[in-house]
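tokens incoming
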């Protein structure tokens, strides 16, 4: 879904760029609305995608790096925009943004989850605990196990074992 959103955003940017030649003000409004709505959606979806793609430990380790890379990308994007804006019309930046969105779509496609390998052997079910053997709810079973272990320890202490 996220790669499609990035690609769709790139197409919308190119349409807005084409509109910007004859209709500058409406194109400016469209670009503003585009980034206000679609930009927030893409960012939120991207982080949701990452959190689903990686297990919690890996995600915790990688999300900081991703956020840092996003910050560096934002700074570099600002530098590129300022340099392009000095010598060329502002509308020149719109197709450049579209190219960046296509690059993001390709990058997210590379991060898609790999198919989990099929298990060759079925894992055996866990052995029943006292709680299931006695048909006691698990919380009570833990309490009974602790009490019976304590009672066993008391008996061993009395015997001198």
């Amino acid at each position: 879904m996220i790669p499609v959103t990035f690609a769709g955003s790139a197409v919308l940017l190119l349409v807005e760029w084409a509109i910007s030649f004859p209709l500058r003000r409406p194109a400016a409004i469209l670009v503003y609305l585009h980034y206000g709505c679609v930009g927030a959606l893409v960012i939120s979806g991207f982080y949701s995608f990452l959190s689903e793609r990686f297990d919690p430990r890996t995600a915790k380790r990688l999300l900081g790096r991703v956020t840092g890379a996003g910050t560096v990308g934002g700074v570099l994007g600002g530098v590129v925009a300022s340099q392009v804006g000095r010598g060329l019309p502002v509308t020149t930046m719109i197709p450049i943004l579209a190219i960046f969105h296509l690059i993001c779509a390709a990058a997210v496609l590379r991060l898609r989850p790999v198919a989990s390998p099929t298990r060759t052997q079925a894992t055996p079910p866990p052995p029943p605990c006292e709680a299931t053997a006695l048909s006691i709810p698990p919380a009570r079973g833990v309490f009974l196990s602790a009490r019976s272990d304590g009672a066993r320890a008391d008996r061993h202490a009395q015997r001198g074992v």
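note: The chain has two domains: 2-110, 130-159.
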